[in-house]
Amino acid sequence: MVMHMTPGVGIVHQLPFTCDRKGFSCTLEKVFFGGWHARMYLTMCAIRTNCVTGMSNLIRKSIIDDNGGLEGLSKYIAEDFYMGLITLKSGYKQQLSSLPVLQNSGISSLENFQKRMIRWTQIRISTVPTILIAEPITESIALGIWNSWSFNYLFGLDPILFFLSHISTWMLLGFIQLRIVQNDKLNFSKFDFVVAWLYRELMTPYLFMKGMMKTTVTWRNQTYRLKWGGELEEVR
Predict the structure, then answer these.
(1) What does 125-158 look like in DSSP terms, one character per residue?
(2) What are the φ/ψ torsions at residue 209 (nearest 5 degrees)?
(3) Closest Cα to residue 166, out of 177, 186, 180, 152?
(4) Helices in the chain by DSSP H: which ranges?
(5) Quick one: residue 91, left, alpha or beta (phi over 0 = left, psi -120 to 50 = alpha)?
(6) Cα separation, 177 vs 5, whole angstroms
(7) What is the CA 145 to chain-centroid distance, rounded?
(8) Confidence band, pLDDT 50/70/90 cuts, at residue 193
(9) Chain-centre distance for alpha carbon 103
(10) Is 77's pLDDT higher than 80?
(11) Which of 112, 127, 108, 139 is CA-nearest to residue 52?
(12) Rounded to the nearest 5°, which phi and psi values hold at 58?
């Protein structure tokens, strides 16, 4: 990361990924972070849009000091996102590291994964409200349904066949991307990948709706109320 901290660069961050671990929930995490999340993260970096996460980043101390210090960031639940913003506002660039950061979360389970997705949805919506419209239309199932209807209406193509082809293509591209991010042999089978990929795609609309309707978030046994702009207040 230090190698990427060149003159003009204010923050170096890493693509979030996961360690190799056994179990379906661990496979699901790897498929998510190497699939949808990596696609979003790398795309945002390519078009120079702020997408810094707090899992691992290196930032110039002067940027923090000139923008109210760590206390100035403490009012945000997504302080990593705002670290990225103040970096850009200070006239510096963001730089993605050539190596991903490997998470090794304590307890991996489907319940914890779902809670994490709901919490992240809440945070994204409160920080960037346009997510309410933009994010759903980036999902494979929603796009598949709309495109199937469109091509059937315009060209008379079989919507079911089109939808199955669409989903198969997305799945294949997701697998290729995961292998690139992994840069090594995966520790699970192609069948495990298919099941985890379908689980993530099918559960996402439900988890997104659940996150959209919640106004409080629980973090480390404490409950906070989210406000627009990414700010929070403790619920006593």
Answers:
(1) HHH-TTHHHHTGGGSHHHHHHHHHHHHHHHH---
(2) -65, -40
(3) 152
(4) 24-34, 36-46, 61-65, 69-73, 79-89, 110-127, 131-134, 140-155, 159-182, 190-213
(5) left
(6) 27
(7) 23
(8) very high
(9) 14
(10) yes
(11) 127
(12) -125, 120
Question: Is residue 39 within 8 Å of residue 171, measured between CB atoms?
Answer: no
Cα 46 to Cα 19: distance, rounded to the nearest angstrom: 25
Neighbouring-strand partners of residue 59: 11
Characterize the bridge pairing of strands 57-59 and 101-103: unpaired
Q: Which residues are catalytic?
A: 80
Give the span between the Cα atoms of 20 and 187, in whole angstroms. Answer: 6
Query: Which amino acid is present at 194?
Result: V
Report the alpha-carbon distance of residue 29 to residue 17 in Å, rounded.
Answer: 8
Rg (C-alpha) for the chain, rounded Å, is: 19
User: Each residue of 116-136: pLDDT tens digit?
Assistant: 999 999 999 999 888 888 898
The amino acid present at 85, given as its one-letter code, is: L
Pairing between strand 216-219 and 222-226? antiparallel
Antiparallel, parallel or unpaired: β 93-96 and 9-13? parallel
Q: Are 53 and 80 in contact (CB under 8 A)?
A: yes
Tell me which amino acid residue 54 is: G
Residue found under tokens 């991996």: 108
Amino acid at 227: K
CA–CA dist 2, 58 (Å, integer)? 8
Cβ neighbours of 115 (radius 10 Å) = 15
Instruction: Determine the average pLDDT of the residues in 107-114.
Output: 92
